[in-house]
Prior knowledge:
Layout lengths: L1 H17 L3 H6 L2 E4 L4 E7 L12 H20 L4 E12 L7 E11 L3 E9 L5 E13 L2
Antiparallel strand pairs: 1-2, 2-4, 3-6, 4-5, 5-6
Amino acid sequence: MTETREQDARYQQILERLGAGALAQKLGITILEASPELTVATMPVEGNTQPVGLLHGGASAALAETLGSISAFLSVAEQKKAAVGVDLNITHLRSVRSGTVTATCRAIKLGRTVCVHATDITDEAGKLIATARITNNIIDLP
């Protein structure tokens, strides 16, 4: 149990040092939990809508990619490596007009050269609004 807490603390330190990125800040993404295996975040719908008032699909895609990238990066951060997205696929299943969405990102593969994560995005009622898959290549840091 202590090892898990220490590891969680290291992940938190890495996140605090790097942040989730400028786009994540603009979208209002809040990271609730982060690890290579599971990352959870919320994002407000307000301010992230398209012209007819629905959550913008690009905002959902950015949320999914942010979580997948954070998870992949955390899996290799202590090895002086980084994760770079090479593929993102998202399917929008229902619309949402207000409130907050929650994204849950789970690892499918945590490899030496590639990481794959799946993200489900739900509305406040827990209904699935989108599902995504992101693939990150693992690269050496300069």
